[in-house]
Amino acid sequence: MSSIQHTTSTSTVASRSGGALVPTNSVTTLDGVTVRTRIDPALTVDEVVRQLVTSPTLRQNGSPSQYALRDDTDELVTNDNLRRKIKSRVNLKLVNAPAQEAREIAEKLKYRHEKSIRLTLFSLQKYIREEQFSTEFLNHNGLAELVAVIEETTGNTLAYALTAMQNLMELPYGWSTLDSAFILRVVQILSSPNSPINVCRPATAILKKLVEADPHSAANPAAASSSTAPPAPPPDSIHRYGFGAVCEQMRKERGFLETVVNRLGSADTAMAQYSMNLINALLTHATDARWDEFIGDLERLNVRKAVVRLMSLHEIDDLTSCILDFQANILRVTVRKQYTAVDPDADATHALALRAIWEASRLEEEVDEHGEIVKWRKLGFETEDIPHEFRDEGVLGLECLRSFVELDTDFSMLMLEQLSRPAEKRCPIAKASNEVVELLLNHWRAFAPGYSTTTTFQPFFLDFQKVHSLATHFFVRMWAESGAAVNEDFTRVSDLVRSQIKASLRNEHVRQWHEVESDFNCEYQKVRDRQMQELELEDKILSKVPVRNLRAKLYKESYEFVRQQRIQCLLQGAWFVNAVPVDAPPPRNPHRKPQRPWRFMRLDNALKYLHYVDSAVKFPVRNGLEDLPERIDISVISEIATGTCAPPPNVLRESSDLPSSSPPGPSPLSFSLLSAHEGSLADQIAPDQSRWADWTDGLNMLRRDGGHVSSKETAGFVHALTEIGLKIKLLDLSAELVDLPDGLTAGPPPASSDFFFSDIVSG
Q1: CA 435, CA 444: separation in Å to the nearest integer?
Q2: Which residues, at least 6 apart from 369, have a Cβ–Cβ distance to it below 8 Å?
Q3: pLDDT tens digits, residue range 377-390?
Q4: 486 touches 534 (CB < 8 A)
Q5: Does the model's pTM come out above 0.85?
Q6: 484-514 pLDDT, tens per residue?
Q7: Which of 452, 475, 649, 718 sits in a 20 to 30 Å window from 728, CA-based?
């Protein structure tokens, strides 16, 4: 007896009477003939297709291997999803097999008939991610033909071709032969401000993919920006491009980077998001050879200001993730500048900055009573050795001092005012500038690049130099109002400024700049009173340099500990409510109970796939993956969006796993797994805040670049573990009343090394 039974060969759906088996699906052929058929879910797809093709009812020509099944959305029916299609009674289509379709499309691209090319490309962009299709397409020189179409076409045809290429590049193979001419063509498309949005979106995604496909990423994604030379990739590896290959072509189009930055202000949110993702990829993968040049270009284009403007928009949910990634990248840039030594003899830009600072002061060199030149000491440095003076703040300190000088039009008057005072009463402005840099770095916890746990926007951090200038002016004023003297009171004034920075930059994601300026205009006595209150709660030992270094080390260890805990929760798995996106159309019958309102998800041990099963009721899930037939590829998840969906009305009423007071609308415990090309892959609601934090942050931490922390709960865990660890370490010191120094100074070397061997000689 056949495992597939047909009920009718007409083009309309007919019901069966009597005791016959109920059909499961409708199948439509290429000729438009529709049959109602019952498919045994135990069969393989190949066997289902064979029985359909050879059945007398359909009478299809050719071998069964030339055919395949697709649903109404053109998704290919495979052994992995056949059972789901049968259960859902999805309408199916008997169509050409992917390999057959691929050969035909590759052939059509070769001749590029104007009337049919768009339809051909439209089909290509749908099917190219399928393994059978892509393999056959590439074997028939399809990639070269697609590149030729991109080179020759414009408008919507070009948009379709670029989207097809974008989808092809989601595969981990098949595009390693793309050359520099193709990269230049994509760069030229993006360089033109007149390129349509539907062309720029896929072009931007393609360039981002090329940037990420570097040899470092092939071996160790976390070391993508490492200065160590990577091993040469295999000849057919896609990991052969990277920042260097793309940057070489970017330099040929002078307006490229400016145009990409300008698109951050696009009214099309998707375009702004694509542009932000490209900038983040460039920042993440920038090589040492081009680092200074690239970062300098971005700074000149005011990319930070463009991102701050995005932060101020109200409808930016889609941009939140990439903005937080940008903040993390700027943290890396900031810390790298701090660790880059100032060397005016070897670096012309350092010498130029120092000359601009000196010329703005309008001072003249002098010779002291010892015959030594006095120049930089007039500005407030302790010595004339500039590399030594910037030993802790590096290039970041130099850039901030230059910015302070340039932002203050009366800088020369400020210097003359200080020099008119007795030497012991002068504020060492250059030293104060460096101290403010340290205070700001400590406030924003900029000591652990790659371990950012901020869950909120930090617009003032992105305007680091402007905040530095404001705080340095405050330092100078507090120095004068408190009657400070150089030797005794520098640390005391620094503590005042630290207190003010903490107060003025609180909740910066909701504050306006004028509020910060107003806070920094407060009087000395008010700052002093608040500081006294803070000192009652906080031990001064925490500001010592060795303790700050210890905190940085513990911070990294705490972050990694929480990361492993979150991933362990994913490996154990959990039940969630299947939710509905808030922007989805309302159901025709809102009172109808969904067939499978529950979903159990579990991460596999290889950390590559999320396996899941949808069910009408929750049941005990065995260890392993046997009970979880469906899966989601982690690598295609581009964003974990939160607060995006709501439970179906009947689930909201009936479920005891949801808060009883849950209002209609987006649930604060909801999250969606979004793909750049397929939309939402999953829309779930967690039963409680703890599981929501475990999964949203765990999935974010799985990302190749480390991602960012979404929940305040996880950020709080990292902070709490760091503080607890720090206090435990400090207990060992405080119990012995050990005095922590601000720094360590090596003593003179021994006069002789004979004592190393005295015991041996005497023996």
Answers
A1: 15
A2: none
A3: 999 999 999 999 99
A4: no
A5: no
A6: 887 778 998 998 999 999 999 988 888 899 9
A7: 452
